[in-house]
Design brief:
The protein is of the alpha+beta class. β3 and β4 form a beta hairpin. The mean pLDDT is about 90.
Length: about 170
């Protein structure tokens, strides 16, 4: 069966379904890496309000994938500018992308990326960036399949750990 999916700009009416998908995405990330913070009890409401405000921002976009009268995926992105101490650069930042489990492996995510990439192209961005959970091999594989490459590593060091080898330690030792 050929399942029809339409990609379109997101609107305020889409926020309840997008928020639920965002919650599933956040929970999936936490399952992949328990070091990520959990969602606060009203986190969905807060995210939905924030997203509603962002819909009015010309440097932000929400695109949704719709099929069978339901949303089955979404992508959010924004324009990001280099600090003024560096040569001018404008990047496209993909903040979130999600496709419902039943709709995966049907090129929905690729189509969402293609649509937001077209907007980035219209905005003359230099490149597209995204954060990917390091312990999510499926996401890493997806981005590699589109030609993305590792650029910077985000490191984490718990406070209070020995900072240097040898005898230099924190004052709590």
């Amino acid at each position: 069966m050929d399942r029809q999916v339409t990609i379109r700009s997101g609107a305020a009416d889409d926020l309840p379904q997008v928020t639920e998908m965002w919650r599933e995405l956040a929970c999936h990330h936490i399952e992949q890496d328990s070091r990520l913070p959990g969602i606060v009890p009203d986190g969905g409401k807060v995210w939905r309000r924030r997203l509603g405000r962002l819909l009015e921002d010309s440097t932000f976009r929400l695109y949704v994938a719709e099929a069978e009268e339901n949303l089955v995926g979404f992508v959010t992105g924004f324009l990001q500018y280099a600090p003024e101490v560096f040569e001018p650069q404008k990047a496209g930042k993909i903040a979130d992308i999600y496709v419902a489990r039943a709709w995966r492996r049907q090129r929905v995510a690729q189509r969402l990326v293609a649509v937001i990439s077209e907007w980035f192209k219209e905005e003359n961005v230099n490149h597209i960036e995204m954060n990917v959970v390091a312990r999510n091999p499926a996401a890493i594989s997806f981005w590699h399949s589109l030609g993305a490459q590792e650029f910077m590593a985000r490191m984490r060091l718990p406070v209070g750990r020995q900072m240097l080898r040898g005898d230099l330690r924190t004052t709590n030792d």
